[in-house]
Amino acid sequence: MSTVPPPFPTPQESVGHPELLQLGTALEPDEPCLRADAARNRARLLEAAARLVAERGADAVTMEAVAAEACVGKGTVFRRFGDRTGLLTALLDHSEKKFQAAFLAGPPPLGPGAPPVERLRAFGRAMLRRSADELELQLAAEPGASRRFTAPPRRVLRHHVAMLLRQAVPEADCELLSHTLMGQLDPALIHHLTRQCGIPMARLEDAWVDLVDRVTGTATGG
Amino acid sequence: MSTVPPPFPTPQESVGHPELLQLGTALEPDEPCLRADAARNRARLLEAAARLVAERGADAVTMEAVAAEACVGKGTVFRRFGDRTGLLTALLDHSEKKFQAAFLAGPPPLGPGAPPVERLRAFGRAMLRRSADELELQLAAEPGASRRFTAPPRRVLRHHVAMLLRQAVPEADCELLSHTLMGQLDPALIHHLTRQCGIPMARLEDAWVDLVDRVTGTATGG
Known about the structure:
The structure is a homodimer of 222-residue chains. Helices cover 68% and strands 0% of the residues of chain A. Chain A is an all-alpha fold. Chain A has 2 domains: 73 residues, Tetracycline Repressor, domain 2 (Orthogonal Bundle), CATH 1.10.357.10; 111 residues, no CATH class. Chain A is globular, with a radius of gyration of 18 Å. Chains A and B meet through α9, α10 and α11 of A and α9, α10 and α11 of B.
């Protein structure tokens, strides 16, 4: 049920992601010191919290509910995360790291080994599916306007998109084009489209694939 | 120096913009009752405030500074706008209406009469230039994540982009594609790129034109 995240990042891939080490440091200040069983316990609690978010929304994630879901005492959850805010922050970091491991070192087409356009398509689909599960959590954690584009997790994702774009369309302004693509995956936009406009997630996935094809000149266009 | 905004909206164009009447109502509750000289006075004060924003930033817009810039007594500004918040709100509304008049009924290529792809290119360039002048003001007025996509001015702009896209690429999911294009013109993104990354506005304009061409299949693509 609960698994320890794969080693992260792989040395080869991190070369293309200058901010990754910095992010890793920011996300797990005390992680390297954890013994293996403590790390497994922590991952188990976070997987339990993630299940609660997916099944009942972010509001359902309380220290008590996570303890019950993971079959441990409440004290264990408090010792590990301090308070609910600490738990939610750790939960997003955990999800972020799992996702990064998947696109940096997981199987293709999300991970290395597939052509860049296929990886871009898979990246957006995976991001959209992740947002479908964690939307409340992502919205609650969204930084203000001045920090929205500089928060480390987003920068790592955008760097990845820019790297794939440079492989697919080297002649384009891939730095700016990566912002365009990331905008389509913005949690606030996904919330608006799915919850406020009632657009099904499948249509968002189709639109993503179409956008990637248009931007990279893979489809016939107009 | 100061001009009364052109009649707005024109009946033909408003057909394609179902939210325009609603927006018009929201923006000018007492406008229809103003006598012509009062309306001219109001426009003159707002043009003075707009000059201050463009020259010295949003912080420079105080009731006193606007009065001095427009060569009227301070009391006139207070009577007309109530307080600084009222003035800034009126200023954004005024700018919004001038811009809407330009793309709905002004000369081509921004206004009607040019092919849709040319109008899209001109629309983004005009939006970027407007943001260069008013960025602080737009950022200060940015609604929270849950309202960012439903605020009336943004909806009118996005509807316009969707309408042009439907003319240019009728086979595409123009509703979702219009969100993609609008994301590129988001004030928070423009702030990040120009102020935090030091990217010149000219490069943003080039990237906009390139994006429009890619999305509509006008350029060679990749």
